[in-house]
Specification:
Elements (H helix, E strand, L loop, with lengths): L1 H17 L3 H13 L1 H8 L1 H19 L4 H24 L15 H10 L1 H7 L2 H8 L2 H29 L6 H30 L1
Helix pairs in contact: 1-9, 1-10, 2-3, 2-6, 2-9, 3-6, 3-9, 4-6, 4-8, 5-8, 5-10, 8-9
């Protein structure tokens, strides 16, 4: 169902967008040093980086799409990655960003940082790729558009928070939202592993 792919992509995009990381730091730094428009521009980096990564992942994954063992392994690795990511997010007890905002950056820097970040590769070559090859054209398209769109909008929201309420990014509310998203990620990780095992046992 398209709704399953949409909800999964929405959760993945929100978690990736709100989780502090290299791209998020650049977005906040740009917002604080050059204003909200610069932070919004930095948020668009996934448009330039994730597209080529998705194409590369799909080319590789479609070569093995008909091999059930590969599909099962892909789902197991992807599910394990989601669970590992969720445990990392759950272990965070304090968000401290102030000491990470020294370096100057730009949209080009944001693109370079995202290209060098292993996160997008791990996602699209595992769990993201498994959703795409499992779905039909509509489901796969909905997944990709929703995941990237939600990621970008989440980063823009972070830029807006940084521009208006920087302290909120280090507050308990933001931390609680991260932990709730971590639980959702863990749930999708378990479902992905269960679906993969079902394919392997049928």
């Amino acid at each position: 169902m398209v709704s399953e792919f949409f909800l999964a992509a929405l959760s993945f995009g929100l978690a990736a967008g709100l989780k502090p990381g290299p791209l998020g730091i650049i977005v906040i730094q740009q917002t604080l040093s050059k204003g909200l428009p610069a932070g919004v521009r930095a948020s668009l980096a996934p448009l330039a980086t994730d597209g080529p990564i998705i194409v590369a992942a799909l080319w590789l994954l479609t070569q093995f799409k008909q091999i059930d063992l590969f599909t099962v392994m892909l789902g197991l690795v992807g599910g394990a990655y989601l669970i590992w990511l969720s445990t990392k997010m759950l272990r965070v007890d304090k968000i401290s960003l102030s000491n990470k905002l020294n370096a100057q950056g730009s949209l080009a820097t944001a693109i370079k940082v995202n290209l060098l970040n292993p996160g997008p590769y791990l996602f699209w070559f595992t769990v993201g790729g498994s959703y795409i090859i499992r779905g039909n054209a509509w489901e796969s398209t909905a997944f990709v558009v929703t995941a990237i769109g939600t990621l970008i909008l989440s980063k823009m929201f972070v830029a807006l928070l940084a521009a208006q309420f920087f302290s909120a990014l280090e507050g308990r509310g933001y931390l609680l939202a991260m932990k709730l998203l971590a639980l959702v990620l863990a749930g999708f990780g378990v479902l992905t592993i269960a679906d993969s095992l079902a394919i392997g046992l049928r």
